[in-house]
Structures are given as structure tokens and as C-alpha cells.
Amino acid sequence: MAALRKRSKKVAWGVVLALVLAGVFGAGGAGAQVSFGELNAVPACIGGVQTQDCAYGQAELPPAEAVAAEVRHLETVLPAVAALDIPVYTVRQRCSLPGLGMLAGCTLPGQNKVYLFASPRYASYTVGVRKGEANVERFAPYLAAYAVAHEFGHVVRYQLVDNRTLQEYLKLRGAAGADAKGWTCHPEEIFAEDFRWLFGSEKARYIPYLCGIAPPGEKEKAFLLEVLAGE
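RE: above sequence
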């Protein structure tokens, strides 16, 4: 029973690793630290989300260097994002929603934290053997960049964009009624996808725009830059 309680406690919250990635990005060799940690399980009950232990352990976690690079990119292009000081946690569980499939990550309303989930898509695999030497690569190295940029979009919305401004943006966007197309076109998802598309790195934009409407353009970018500059 004691062992069961010990394991339950470990699975419920996990062991938070206080890791700080201090890589060098950009000219001059300077850069702020990226707050990065690991959890064994999702830190809250998320309605409808199903969890599963990852089969390949550490290999299923988003590459730390890819996560850090995307955070650095967003903080460089948007000072308002840097001011939020958003910590990123990788979670050693696969998470999925019935009918939607495996999730790359999530945020929780009212928080400025981003959670990235384990996925077999991050695991290494052999793509070929040449002269007796295996060519091993990670699948979808752009997935981490996509997840960071999209989830940062949610945090920006929660922290810096009020409901009235969101409705103004959606009107400008011509996205009224788009949520009838499904979950990926919910107003909150449109905002996060637009943020990813407008401000994410090239790798973050490698995955096509998810909602079945045209991606945002310069007028949407100008609107959001003005809103964020006012914060």
C-alpha cells in the first residue's frame, strides 16, 4: 500500500526538473534563459483528455533544443511575449481527445504556462542503412516548433487580449461563424493558429494552417502588433 501511494504521488505530479537552457541564439552571443522543465503527468484534470504512458520514454519528448529555439524566436520578434516569461513543461504522457487524436500540447486558462506532451512522432527511427551504417532521424522535427508557437498564442490571448479585442480581431479576420467547421476553427484556436502563422518561425509554419479558412495576412499582423505594443 505504501508503495502504491508513493507511485500514485509520483504519477500525479511528477518530478519537476529545474532546468534552465542557456543556449546562444543570434549575433553577439547573448540571450535570456529559457525556463524549461519536465513533469511525469498532466498537472490538472483536462476534460475529455485521455492519457497514456509513452512507450519509448525520453525519446518521445520534444527535443529541448527545438523548444528553446522557438521560444527564443518568439521572444525576439515580440517583446510582449518575452515580458510574460512563459515557462514550458514537457509531460511524459501521451494525451489525446476522442475524435481528434493525439495532442501536441495545451495551456490552461488563467495560467501563463505551456505543456507539451510526449508523442511517438518525436521518437528516433531508422530511415535507411548505407554501407552498414544506420541513418537515424527524429520524425517531424518541426512539431515542437509548431506546438510552442501555437500554445504561446493561447497564453498571449489569455494574458494580453481581452474578449472585446478578440471579437474585433475575428471581425477583421472575417472569421465569424468559422467555428461551425469544427474544433480547429473555434475562435480560441483560430487566434492561436494565427499567432503561430504570423509570428512563429519557419519551422513552426511547416505544418499547414489547420482551420479550413485562408491563413492570416498583413492586416491581421498589423492589428495584433498594435494590440501587443499597447500592453
